[in-house]
Each structure stands twice: as C-alpha cells, then as structure tokens.
C-alpha cells in the first residue's frame, strides 16, 4: 500500500550548482505529461535545464558555472 508506515522514504540529495541526486528506481512526470523511468540505484535530475538528456543530468551545468 502506498504511503504506509512501512514504506522507506526516497532520499533526495540537493547539490548547490548541481543536480538533484535521487535514490532509484524513479519515474519522472514531465510538463507535457509524459513519463520517463530509470531503474538505476541512483539518478541525477537536472535542475539547470542545460542537459541534452533532460530530465537526466549530463553535467552540462559544469560548462557555465
């Protein structure tokens, strides 16, 4: 059952000038309603929108720090 007391919360790590690191697997719903999924144990979500693989971070933020 979702949101039950036995559910382990997902950990999200916030990095200054970097991506959000999320313990996976994850599903991300985009603005247009499409859903993308990653089964990796940890994913980096782009917060600067410079990534060519958005919503996944490709470290493009490093080019304009």
TrEMBL record:
Sorted keywords for this record are: 2Fe-2S, Iron, Iron-sulfur, Metal-binding
Any Pfam family the entry gives:
zf-CDGSH
Keyword flag Lipid metabolism: no
Q: Which InterPro entries match?
A: FeS-contain_CDGSH-typ, MitoNEET_CISD
Domain Iron-binding zinc finger CDGSH type, first and last residues per copy: 23-65
Keyword Signal in record = no
Kindly indicate where the leader peptide sits in this chain.
Answer: none
Q: What is this protein called?
A: CDGSH iron-sulfur domain-containing protein
Q: Which organism is it from?
A: Streptomyces bullii
């Amino acid at each position: 059952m979702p949101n039950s007391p036995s559910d382990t919360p997902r950990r999200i790590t916030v990095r200054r000038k970097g991506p959000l690191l999320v313990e996976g697997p994850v599903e991300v719903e985009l603005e247009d309603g499409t859903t993308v999924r990653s089964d990796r144990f940890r994913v980096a979500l782009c917060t600067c929108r410079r990534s060519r693989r958005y919503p996944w971070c490709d470290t493009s933020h490093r080019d304009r720090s």
